[in-house]
Specification:
Strand order of the largest sheet: 1-9-8-2-5-3-4
Largest sheet: 7 strands, mixed
Order of helices and strands: HHHHHEHEHEHEHEEEHEEH
Radius of gyration: 20 Å
Shape: globular
Number of strands: 9
Oligomer: single chain
Strand content: 15-25%
Amino acid sequence: MVGKIIYYLIIYPFIYLLSLLPFWAIYGLSHFFKFLIFDVIGYRKKVVETNLRNAFPEKSEKEIKQIANKFYLYFCDLILETIKTLSISKKKVLQHVTFENPEVVNKFYNKGQSVILVLGHYGNWELCGAASNYFFDSQFYAIYKPLHNKEFDNLLIKMRSRSGVRLIKMKETYKKIFSMVEKEELFTVAFIADQTPSPDNAYWTTFLNQDTPVFWGTENVARKTNLPVVYATLKRPKRGYYSVELEVIHTCPKESIIGEISEAHTRLLERDIKEQPEIWLWTHKRWKHKKPANVLNKPVFKNKNHI
């Protein structure tokens, strides 16, 4: 009860006031947060630098430190830009986020097909998510994992749904998507596929020079529903601005080989991270699990349906 009072009287008003700040003020504040969180407190600095060293063994210690320093500022930008979605207008969202080729998704919609969109914790998925419903002709859904704290969970739901995006709880993913397919509803549903699954029930591959487990969820849903799969790259050409580029992974998943779709979206994310490494979520303990001894890495698959 005391926690709720503190949240509604202090925390929420503070967050809302932050969201009203113009972007130039947000980025000034971001420098202060970066100094406090990383330079003073040292939040997960060891995790970040260890992840970077393992992912880029060819880079010098100086290069690792440079990428880490850029990441720390990006991480603070990410937090404040996400808070900004609590009050940002449609006009302002469209000034900061552009979809370069939404027709990649809309052409499927125009043919009566729903689409599975897959991406990683790269760029600002929250700000780009807020813009997505303005570019796609179909209803946009996002899969999310509820937070344990009810107040903060409700806050994130409010942020993510203001622009018309609808949310699906992770544990209800299969039920909801299969239900919409059966009802012949047209939709685009986004999976963030670089989270850490249980090591014993995962697709294992090599990602950024390390054995890495990948959730089967995206591929399993695609193969069972035969919905086309599209990958989204969230580029950051300059601070505060994002461009989303879409590319088809598979047009007929039921004809794919097991592991093909998981391998494809993992390779595409790896490509993006190598291009602009500072805007991936390096604080995430992506490699906390070891590959079970009885699991083999899967090769890259290609067939006529792979684009």
